[in-house]
Design a protein that fits this description.
Length: 294
């Protein structure tokens, strides 16, 4: 299948990974161990260590990556450029099952993509190495917008890191704010190979149809969504959230196993907000992007 089938993960970027992971611990997530990344700067170059490391909140369907710059002497892989804009969500990845086929599709469509970008990281200290094939949209103003194929999904979706006290089980949707939603939607539709439709509120929505196992080995065939909204619509979706810059990956909706009951108990004491889709942790308490538990 040579189109994107699912919303795979979102990535939050920070210069203080300890503070970011502490915030997500406080929200009731069981995070994977710290893993420093490595990869190839260009398709034909040698694999080298990067100055970035992550911890992740793996869900039954999809995951959230918490990415930080841990060694400024090494290649930052664009993270420094993202942080110059704002601290928060800069990565949106759509799941694919055939990197080579999607590369051919995008090149036929006229996109100048040099090739597949290979990334790898240990799943934990001394553990096996997970491998990924990535097709990033070149120079996307929205951030690192990419297609990703997991080559070793069984290594990263480990049950040890999936028992979240807040009940989160699926990355259901992401909210992108753009000054020109039609232009951003056309770019993202081209990358994913999926058509867009008008959002019921304003702007547009891309729906990824889902496929069993497409966003983790335990994932069902769940439709997921990216909403591309104008700034004027954001208060109706994520109350009180203000874009620090445009475009802005403003937040996400996480489906829970119990309609948010466990999340509400875990989040007691945080200044949560009632949003249309559920209870929301504001960006300032979640690393720069709003997190809604539905």
């Amino acid at each position: 299948m040579t189109v994107a089938t699912t919303l795979d993960h979102l990535g939050l970027c920070t210069s203080d990974l300890g503070a970011l992971t502490a915030a997500w611990d406080r929200m009731g997530f069981a995070l994977s161990p710290l893993a420093q990344q490595s990869g190839k700067r260009t398709p034909g170059s040698a694999t080298e260590p990067f100055g970035t490391a992550n911890r992740c909140a793996f869900l039954e369907h999809g995951y959230i990556e918490l990415l930080g710059l841990v060694d400024p002497t090494l290649f930052a892989n664009g993270l420094d450029r993202f942080l110059a804009r704002y601290t928060g969500a800069h990565i949106c990845a759509f799941g694919i099952q055939d990197a080579e086929g999607n590369l051919e599709r995008l090149r036929r469509g006229g996109l100048d993509i040099p090739g597949i970008a290979w990334l790898e990281r240990p799943v934990e200290a001394g553990g096996p190495t997970a491998r990924f094939a990535r097709l990033p949209f070149p120079d996307a103003p929205e951030g690192r917008i990419q297609l990703v194929q997991h080559l070793t999904p069984e290594l990263v979706w480990d049950r040890r890191w999936m028992g979240h006290a807040n009940g989160a089980i699926a990355l259901e949707s992401a909210i992108l704010v753009a000054e020109n939603p039609a232009e951003a939607t056309a770019r993202l539709s081209r990358l994913t190979g999926q058509p867009a439709r008008p959002d019921p509120l304003a702007g547009f929505v891309l729906t990824l149809p889902g496929v069993a196992g497409g966003a983790g080995p335990f994932s069902p065939a769940l439709p997921t969504h990216l909403r591309i909204l104008p700034p004027t619509a954001l208060p109706w979706v994520l109350p009180g959230v203000t874009p620090p810059a445009l475009p802005f990956l403003a937040g996400m909706v996480l489906r829970t196993s119990d309609q948010g009951r466990a999340a509400r108990a875990v989040l007691a004491g945080l200044p949560v907000v009632e949003a249309p889709d559920g209870v929301m942790v504001p960006p300032e308490h979640a690393g720069g992007a709003a997190v809604v538990f539905a």
